[in-house]
Amino acid sequence: MTNTIENIADLKKQLTKAENKPRAQLLAKIEQLKTDAEHQIRLHQKDIDFQTKEYTVELTVQKYSDGLDDDDNELFIPDYQREFTWSIKRQSKLIESLLMGLPIPYIFIADILSDDKEDTGRTEIVDGSQRIRTLHAFLSNNLTLEKLELLTDLNNFCFEDLPISRQRRFKRIPLRIIELSQQCTEETRRDLFERINTGSDDLKDDEVRKGSKLGKTDLYTKVITPCSESVLFHKLAPMSDVVIKRGERKESTLRFFAYLENYLNFGHSVIEFLNKYLNENDKINSTDVAHMNKEFELMLHFIDAYFPHGFTKTEKAKTTQRVRFESIAVGVALALRTNPELQNPNLDWLFSDTFKKHTTSDGSNSKPKVRARIEYVRDKLLGV
Q: Of 130, 277, 301, 326, which has the highest C-beta tally within 10 A?
């Protein structure tokens, strides 16, 4: 209950001076506020069913690595997760902690429901992707330990350098896992991820760019920033305050232009792809600036005119899925480049299982899937 005149603090102050009947009325109002507050808590409580499990390091890495190259791994990283950003020092510290027998935080995963039979039984990493990717790198001998403060004799060691007996013991180390049930929606999983990571001091991708020379380029200051501040963009692509503070609007805008111009040359690392695009386009003339800003606005106006819920799945959605935004925004822009007079397109495909698969499977860093989802939207709009 929100009441700008009678809030519980004001009523309690009045209570100290009231007598008899007025006091009883104040107590009744306070009781009503408490009742309303309890009702609001229950209304917004999420009924999250979960199980606590233990996986060994070896099993966890196996579930993540088997099928990774084909985006068919059982334990997968969803689109809203960050890139693999941990430094070698931080990765090494995690390995050192495990070798010493120190406990590490719970890893959160979720059993997802999917209309695609091939995705049935897969589990999404809600929180812990940096740790799992570190373990995968170490067991694959792609991580050389450095700057260890306690196990200093292990500096410059890879996994294969450990004695066989220690390798076996490391693989058997148990990891504490919380698995959310199928009833936990994508919105809840995203919210959980944001809440767990709120307060982290790690610089996010866009914060790093903003503080580096990349944040001072003409492309960033004259195109990315103003486009990210578009009122229409904010209307069509709602985002939570948490991700906005992380720079998600600029991140999404940068992804739009980078994929639009060069998605066919996308590799595997989004960070490298975006930073390379900024570096190669650090100097752009005023004509290019005007053209890029105009193209972004034309894309937004097309979305506003024909897409029922903008970039979101439903009318009441409060967040915008990153891969959904990328596929629709870039696909629309490419279609308009081919046919600037495009109007009133058939959008049945927008609600199809095929499009759902393009934008919900774990393929945000997969070159074939980046290309497939963008070109699917483009071709459907053009009637190809």
A: 326
